[in-house]
């Protein structure tokens, strides 16, 4: 059906011309209001207001001193300069070597775009005008300009959020995280760890015990034969014997029954509040990195010790933005030397 009585006016959004700028100057000399000028030129008041601001310049007179006046020429120059700078050309064809480097790191090393850009800048692998920023790299991937696809970016493909369920709080097995020294939150001192389990296959009793140091992000991964508290304590005791005693000052755990006897092995163990995984955010984040290589449901027989060691090494040698693109292993060694 054709609408014949429409009250909506069709508008042509054309840029203000130089001739119109000259008319604006004349109208301003006649002391017409911006609203009247807008009506005479068929423009919106806001367009005329912005144009006057753009073209207003300061001049100096020997008698009057400094004063402001609208200049059509100045407004036209600013307009032409803006048009020239608009629609900046893509750097895609000028950064081919960097893009090849990025593709290799994402596909073979599972690095993120941000990690790649930060690592390149820190180590001066390319000049600044030979690379693009992480945001642009994401755009290239979205536009399918690279071999990489979004499915290769582990953190970009998000799972659907789960609805919250009301559950009764579990009993804490030891000292609450509330009793932990508040200075630990600043991450200025090495030696404060978070502990958790990464479950393998549902039908399997094996799991991975993970420890992550809060300051350096150093990760330790060990296999546990079963998820009993006695087995967890045995593996933790082996880890404590393997490393220097003074690098373990506190350990923070969740309230899982498998961690109920940790204080028997390490007295300075603290327990987060029930259903508060964010209180052990560092460990949860690193467990997510492990899942890039060992997805949920993976059977232990399909995961060799060599693979687990390789995953541990990858995590500890991944440049991190939060560490100014140093690796956890580098920062950990620096801290060890300080203790020595």
Briefly summarize what is shown.
The chain is α/β, with parallel strands linked by helices and 340 residues long.
Overview of this structure, please?
The chain is an alpha/beta fold and 340 residues long. It folds into 3 domains: 18-84; 92-152, no CATH class; 175-339, Ribonuclease H-like superfamily/Ribonuclease H (Nucleotidyltransferase, domain 5), CATH 3.30.420. It contains 12 helices and 8 strands. It has helices at residues 18-29, 34-41, 45-55, 72-85, 96-109, 113-123, 134-142, 229-242, 262-265, 281-291, 305-316, 328-339, and strands spanning 56-61, 65-70, 175-176, 192-199, 207-213, 219-224, 250-253, 269-271. The strands form 2 sheets. Strands 3-8-7-4-5-6 form a 6-stranded mixed beta sheet, sandwiched between helices. Strands 1-2 form a two-stranded antiparallel ribbon. Helix 2 crosses helix 3. The longest helix has 14 residues, at 72-85. The protein is elongated, with a radius of gyration of 31 Å. The termini are far apart.
Structural class: alpha/beta
**Mean pLDDT across all amino acids:** 86
Give the H and E element order. Answer: HHHEEHHHHEEEEHEHEHHH
Beta strand count: 8
Portion in beta strands: 5-15%
What's the number of domains?
3
Major sheet summary line:
6 strands, mixed
Helical content class: 25-40%
